[in-house]
């Protein structure tokens, strides 16, 4: 293909009629976006990560705004502008990702693996539970909202993590916590996350026998 002016260039993207997960959570409640649908969303995201990691790629910017929803097509992962091929011992060479979803090892420019995406998935799981931004209720000792720098320091040094809402299924809270483990090797890989989600969804009859 050829063109004469840059303004002729266009990008055609798949339309997802429910928008991104962050916007969807902001305009819904636990009643209008219930747990069966939330678990389907979590499963779709985990399956997208499994595929990406199987191709030796890391997303590096997984967050609710990069998860797209459609009433018919389900959940899809978008915005691969920060994605990178897996390289053993790789470190961040530029500021990528959004710090509220970033794994501690990325915040301190340490070597990282696909486990950084699993950490981000854990943060997204807490969003599915609360409908709020990660760390929305984080406060200092005086009750003041934590500034970004202070929040990042606590994530790195004090293992501060976003939490699930009261009433969230215990197994879901446990899975989110494991995904956000401080040590990358302590985080489950995408296949295990998928297995845990499907196992619990089957118990409540939310996954078909063919899934």
Automatic annotation (TrEMBL):
Pfam short name (any one): Pkinase
Superkingdom as given in the UniProt entry: Eukaryota
GO molecular function, one term: ATP binding
Start and end residues of each Protein kinase domain: 1-201
The protein's name in its UniProt record: Protein kinase domain-containing protein
């Amino acid at each position: 293909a050829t063109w004469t002016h840059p303004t002729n260039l266009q990008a055609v993207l798949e339309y997802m009629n429910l928008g991104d997960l962050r916007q969807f959570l902001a305009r819904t409640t636990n009643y209008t976006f219930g747990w069966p649908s939330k678990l389907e969303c979590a499963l779709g995201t985990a399956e997208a990560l499994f595929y990406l990691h199987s191709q030796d790629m890391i997303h590096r910017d997984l967050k609710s705004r990069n998860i797209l929803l459609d009433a018919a097509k389900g959940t899809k992962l978008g915005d691969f502008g920060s994605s990178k091929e897996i390289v053993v011992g790789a470190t961040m060479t530029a500021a990528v990702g959004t710090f509220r979803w970033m794994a501690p090892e990325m915040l301190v420019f340490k070597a990282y693996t696909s486990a950084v995406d699993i950490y981000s998935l854990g943060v997204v799981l807490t969003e599915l539970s609360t409908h709020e931004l990660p760390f929305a209720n984080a406060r200092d000792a005086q009750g003041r909202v934590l500034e970004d720098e202070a929040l990042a320091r606590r994530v790195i040094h004090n293992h501060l993590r976003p939490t699930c809402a009261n009433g969230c299924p215990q197994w879901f809270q446990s899975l989110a916590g494991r995904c956000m483990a401080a040590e990358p090797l302590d985080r489950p890989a995408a296949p295990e996350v998928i297995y845990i989600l499907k196992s619990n969804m089957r118990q409540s009859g939310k996954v078909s026998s063919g899934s």
